[in-house]
Automatic annotation (TrEMBL):
Positions annotated to bind Mg(2+): D17, D110
SUPFAM superfamilies: HAD-like (SSF56784)
Presence of keyword Magnesium: yes
Species of origin: Petrimonas mucosa
Cofactor: Mg(2+)
Assigned protein family: Belongs to the KdsC family.
Keyword Magnesium appears in the UniProt entry: yes
Enzyme Commission identifier(s): 3.1.3.45
Subunit structure: Homotetramer.
Pfam families: Hydrolase_3
Protein name in the entry: 3-deoxy-D-manno-octulosonate 8-phosphate phosphatase KdsC
InterPro entries assigned to the protein according to its UniProt record, in alphabetical order: CMP-NeuNAc_synthase, HAD-like_sf, HAD_sf, KdsC_fam
Keyword terms: Hydrolase, Magnesium, Metal-binding
Length: 173
């Protein structure tokens, strides 16, 4: 049922990086030099479904995009940390605020900036195109690239194991 070598019944929280995880590694720039992010609609559905199913979803990113914040809020994400310089600081704050312990948390990251925070959670996950150092410390390496459905992959596997995937409210937005 799952290809993740971890007790997924423990998971209560998903935390994602943005660039290279929820959006592709290549980021186009606007006329004024601002990065434009892509989003994956299946990731969006999975995040929204996870929230409605009682999971907490958070984002910790060094990015500063208010558009990204608005998109995440529309999906039900309540804990959004932008402009993060040291992601372990936000993880600690998040854990104190929510009461989650490391074994209950998935963190999906793709690059060196995610290294330290990934070592602080129970289930560190990397997209297929993550850098080698991140893959090395990940319990699960998704076959999906960042921005192409890696969040959907992880959320779907957890919800299936917990019996929360193909349930009545899954068919409605």
């Amino acid at each position: 049922m799952s290809t993740i070598n971890y007790d997924l019944t423990k998971i209560k929280s998903f935390i994602f990086d943005v660039d290279g995880v929820l959006s592709c590694q290549t980021v186009p720039l606007s006329e004024d030099g601002q990065p434009l992010r892509t989003t994956n609609v299946r990731d969006g559905y999975a995040i929204h479904h996870a929230v409605r199913s009682g999971f907490d979803v958070a984002v910790i990113t060094g990015g500063r995009s208010e558009i990204v914040r608005r998109r995440l809020e529309s999906l039900g994400v309540r804990h959004i940390y932008l402009k993060s310089r040291d992601k372990t600081v936000q993880l600690k704050e998040y854990m104190e605020e929510t009461g989650f312990v490391r074994e209950e948390i998935v963190y999906v990251g793709d690059d060196i900036i995610d290294y330290l925070v990934m070592k602080e959670v129970g289930l560190p996950v990397a997209p297929a195109d993550a850098c080698p150092e991140i893959k090395e410390i990940s319990i699960y390496i998704s076959p999906v690239k960042g921005g192409e459905g890696v969040a959907r992959d992880v959320i779907e596997q957890v919800l299936k194991v917990q019996g929360k995937w193909m349930v009545d409210d899954a068919f409605y937005w």
